[in-house]
Amino acid sequence: MIQPPAPVGRPELRTVYGAGPAKVKVDQLSFYYGKFQALHDVTFEIPEKRITAIIGPSGCGKSTLLRVLNRMYDLVPSARATGAVVIDGEDVVSTRKLLDLRQKVGMVFQRATPFPMSIRDNIAFAPRLLGWKPARIKEAVTESLERAALLDEVKDRLDEPATSLSGGQQQRLAIARCIAVSPQVILMDEPCSALDPVATLKIEDLMSTLTRDFTIVIVTHNMQQAARVSDFTAFMLMHPEHRYGELIEFAPTADLFNQPQDQRTEAYITGRFG
Amino acid sequence: MNRTSRRSYTSFAWLGVMYLLTAFALIPLGLVLWFTVAKGLPPALHIEFYTNVFRPVGVPGAGIKQAIVGTLMLVGMASVMAIPAGILGGIYLAEYGLARWAGWVRLASDVLVGTPSIAVGLFVYAILVAPLHHFSGVSGSVALAVLMLPIVVRTTEGSVALIPNGLRESGLALGLPRWRVSLQLILPAAAPGVITGALLSVARASGETAPLLFTAFGNQLLSLDPTHAIQALPLTVYQYALTPYKSLQDQAWGAALVLVVMVLGINLVSRWVLRRQIALAGQL
């Protein structure tokens, strides 16, 4: 499916070949917190139903980029974005249908954040508030737990508090909760950084099965994880002078790790800095 | 004496000082409770104390029913006014309150917390009692609500602000409107602190005398009409304790005990009713 790449180093990285249709098109995106510029001129396309990893050292803007994709930055009053992020023809940056956008673009966070309620209610919470019928909610609970590979472990204890689950289970619950509202894109912000290796492996396995239905974008500071799970990788770096984050290189993961086109990418993946 | 043993002696001595000072701090609490129970229990053991109203000195079977009912009405009405508004205000400050306007709201509620309660009573007298030409339960409960409001606002703000941002973001990331996340996710998560704040305000309002002096005014008879003067337990304590009659003074102690038990009871019952939410939120 993925053809040998037209190598994509910085200025020419407008299109990725062999990726299938793009789900998210990030076009000349810059982002500011007040006067501070956090992202500069980021352009790339996230392919549909693939896993795209965003890697880079701390402070390179990778989490910021992820948070632009579902407008999570709206919570910060001084934050502002220029450029465009187009999902299904709709520009995220300028959309007025914020709630629809967030339903379409779900997010899983570094800390699992179980809601203070039962396992069942954690998943049913959003569907209930969205006014779904009880039968549909019930179905969504089972189905999303199943798809998040958690159903077998919790099916006898759905009414227990979600906080009684282990860290890895809580994270899969967060994924189930996210799936329940039928998103198309799932953003994951370092979803495994608080988990042990076994739990991490389970999440990674889960991610690859999820690509049947979802487009996944994962931010990770763990290069091995990016290499293991992702189909495409974006490497970001903080500009040494202006201190904003830039996209250095975006390519199919195997190519980015085996034949990086930019010497900064090579320096990073070979561990010479970052 | 070598260094290690000197250190452990020093540590021991300071630990002792801390225990001693803690005990000192507990002495007033213990004494207040002891006197209230010891002096209040004899009159409070009679059933007439709860079923009868005021009777002149010398007439047996006097009770404080009018004060118990009055306090429940006053505090109940004040809670209905102050607690929802205070919780919403606190959520606003914690969740949305970055603007300069929120700073003023914070300052105002801080000032209000420190305002002498008698000044609040005078204020309500000026805006409600004087124009309407009579004392009333409503004006008393408005005065109590004014005192409760800032307590609820600030404790709610404090406990909502402690909720990790990740919970808020997780809710928003599901495509839920922000107000629903605030009210239906963040508020339940902050429940233990919010409930404590609300109960603190109820306890404070239940014990207030000064703001009721020229609002609810007091009533020797039972009145269920909130537009008329009504009695309250702290008013009873205040009025009876100032009389030279031992029987009324005993009733004042009894009323004080009833007040303490009532506040304790409200506290325990609310926590029991909301126990599941408190337990869930406590595990966050």
Short recap of the structure:
Chain A has 274 residues and is of the alpha/beta class. Chain A is built from ten helices and ten strands.
Question: What does this entry look like structurally?
Answer:
The complex is a heterodimer of chains A (274) and B (284). By secondary structure, chain A is α/β, with parallel strands linked by helices. Helix content of chain A is 34%, strand content 25%. Chain A contains ten helices and ten strands. In chain A, the strands form two sheets. Chain A has a six-stranded mixed sheet with strand order 6-7-8-3-9-10, with helices on both faces. A four-stranded antiparallel sheet of chain A has the order 2-1-4-5, with helices on one face. In chain A, a hairpin with a 2-residue loop joins β1 (22-33) and β2. In chain A, α3 (119-129) crosses α4 and α4 (134-147) crosses α6 (167-180). Chain B starts with a helix and ends with a helix. The model of chain B has no long low-confidence stretch (mean pLDDT 92). Chain B folds into two domains: 3-36; 51-282, MetI-like (MetI-like fold, Orthogonal Bundle). Chain B is built from 13 helices and no strands. Chain B is globular. Classes of the chains: A alpha/beta (274), B mainly alpha (284). At the A-B interface, α2, α3 and α6 of A face α7, α8 and α13 of B.
Oligomer category: heterodimer
From the coordinates shown, what is the CATH architecture of chain A? 3-Layer(aba) Sandwich
Number of helices of chain A: 10
Q: Any low-confidence stretches of chain A, pLDDT <50, length ≥5?
A: 1-17
Average pLDDT of chain A works out at 89
Q: Name the helicity range of chain B.
A: over 70%
Strand content of chain A: 25-35%
